[in-house]
Specification:
single chain, 189 residues, Immunoglobulin-like, five-stranded antiparallel sheet, four-stranded antiparallel sheet, 30% strand, globular
């Protein structure tokens, strides 16, 4: 009987704190501004799937939440699949970087599918509302089974960070991109 009395008092106290008996909702998180978020570097030529990576750069003045962000991969046969979904706690700091290390589920939070230096491939990123925000494409993934006309020999990187796509020889995941040996690549869009 004593336990029932304590329970009833606890319920009464909760009702007293909320006299309108409204359901208390969590305040919505501040919505991130994805306008300054770009894929900044991508490595498809590493020796192992665990060494391949995709890097994001946030050129904005506020951190960007990756929760609910989706990456889709389109291959040379025009097949599209979701290969990554951001989770709570994953953020890109202002003027900072976020790296997804590994492909083909080689690491815990890696892409579920591979990046290829031998075939046309497109990675496209969507915000939590489904709006396309950034992409990188090497070769023509929409040409029926056609491989990229030029195989990738380096790393795809924006020079400077957030700038134009180049092919570079020195990968810099999580750091400012290195322009050493940067070359234009007509296959890179």
């Amino acid at each position: 009987m004593k336990k029932l009395y304590v329970f009833a008092m606890a319920v009464a106290a909760l009702v007293a704190c909320n006299p309108d008996n409204e359901v208390q909702k969590e305040k919505p998180a501040t919505k991130s501004d994805y306008s300054k978020l770009v894929i900044n570097e991508a490595c498809a030529t590493a020796a192992t799937d665990a060494e391949k990576f995709v890097e994001f750069y946030n050129g904005g003045d506020a951190a960007v939440s990756m929760e609910g962000v989706v990456i889709k991969r389109t291959d040379e046969t025009n097949a599209t699949e979701e290969v990554w979904l951001g989770i709570s706690g994953e953020t890109v700091p202002a003027k900072g970087y976020f790296v997804i290390q590994g492909t083909k589920r080689s690491l815990e939070r890696s892409l579920s599918s591979g990046l290829s230096a031998k075939k046309g491939v497109k990675l496209e990123v969507f915000d939590p509302d489904g709006k396309s925000i950034t992409s990188v494409q090497h070769g023509d993934p929409t040409a029926d089974g056609a491989p990229a006309t030029k195989l990738q020999t380096g790393v795809w990187a924006r020079i400077p960070d957030g700038g134009a796509w180049k092919n570079v020889t020195n990968p810099t995941p999580g750091k400012a991109n290195d322009a050493t040996g940067a070359q234009d690549d007509p296959e890179l869009k």
